[in-house]
Design goal:
The complex is a heterodimer of chains A (149) and B (117). With 149 residues, chain A is mainly alpha-helical. Chain A has a domain of 85 residues. Chain A has 8 helices and no strands. In chain A, helix 2 packs across helix 3. Chain A is extended. Chain B has 117 residues and is mainly alpha-helical. Chain B is 85% helix and 0% strand. Chain B has 6 helices and no strands. In chain B, helix 2 packs across helix 5 and helix 5 crosses helix 6. Chain B is globular and about 50 Å long. The chains are: A mainly alpha (149), B mainly alpha (117). Chains A and B meet through helix 2, helix 3, helix 5, helix 6 and helix 8 of A and helix 1, helix 2, helix 4, helix 5 and helix 6 of B.
Chain lengths: 149, 117
């Protein structure tokens, strides 16, 4: 029994020793540079669409659609996934990461069928985001309706 | 200058996500949910729109901007249409982005083959 307890502790130590150290400083630097770069790219498109005479609202939508399209192409080519291994949150938090979370399972699961495979698994991560985002927006709406106007 | 501001603010928001991943063991999916909800609340109290004025795409491109957009949509719709806006405003403002993600996801799935593992 005691020996059992000791092996458990030794095992825990072994796991601690051999599991990969997560170098947080390096991860944060990569996330900062890659996330910043994606946002700068977005700002370039925003600037470009503004100069073409679109309104603020239209520019916002156009930038989102452009970045989602770019992300879909890079995901289909397998490039976005490889970038994500190094950049972590830097490629997950921008809207390109949201697009990647839709496109990647759509490709991956199409072998399980076009309805319950591709179309259903598309929302593996986007689904929860939409569910909680919509619910939060309703809470905001109710409070705004009662107090804010 | 506006590019530098977009870079710094966008990068900083991603660093917050990275710290949460490394320090709390939250899965990326939970971080994205957290960011959308946080963005929605910050949008509702008027802080996030100020960040968008300052940093442009640095604030709109991260998923917190998507959340702030939900809050903006629901409040504008309530102003325009009354209580019915509580039901329609949020998703209405997200419709363009979601439709793009669905279309490109579908298109990519038709054209690309899954990688063999």
């Amino acid at each position: 029994m005691e020996a059992n307890e000791r092996t458990k502790q030794e095992y825990a130590k072994m796991v601690e020793r051999t599991s990969p150290k997560s170098p947080i400083g390096k991860n944060c630097l990569f996330a900062f540079l890659s996330g910043g770069a994606i946002c700068t790219l977005g700002q370039m498109f925003r600037h470009w669409y503004f100069s073409m005479g679109w309104t603020e609202e239209e520019c916002g939508l156009l930038v989102s659609v452009t970045l989602i399209g770019l992300s879909a192409v890079l995901t289909a080519l397998g490039i976005y996934g490889r970038l994500g291994k190094h950049c972590g949150a830097g490629t997950e938090v921008p809207i390109t990461g949201f697009a990647n979370s839709v496109v990647s399972p759509a490709i991956e699961f199409k072998k399980e069928g076009m309805v319950l495979g591709m179309a259903a698994k598309m929302f593996l991560i986007a689904g929860p985001v939409i569910v909680y985002g919509t619910l939060t927006s309703m809470v905001v709406g109710v409070i705004y309706y009662l107090l804010g106007r | 200058m506006e590019y530098i501001k977009a870079f710094l603010v966008g990068g900083a928001i991603c660093v917050v996500g990275q710290i949460l991943i490394d320090k709390t063991k939250l899965t990326p999916a939970r971080i994205l949910v957290l960011f959308v909800c946080a963005g929605c609340l910050l949008g509702a109290v008027g802080l996030y729109p100020r960040l968008i004025d300052f940093a442009g795409a640095g604030a709109t491109v991260p998923l917190t901007g998507f959340g702030a957009n939900l809050a903006k949509g629901v409040m504008e719709e309530i102003d325009a249409a009354g209580a019915v806006g509580i039901w329609t405003g949020g998703l209405k403002s997200a419709a363009g982005g979601l439709t793009a993600a669905i279309l490109f996801g579908f298109g990519a799935a038709l054209l690309a083959e899954p990688k063999e593992k």
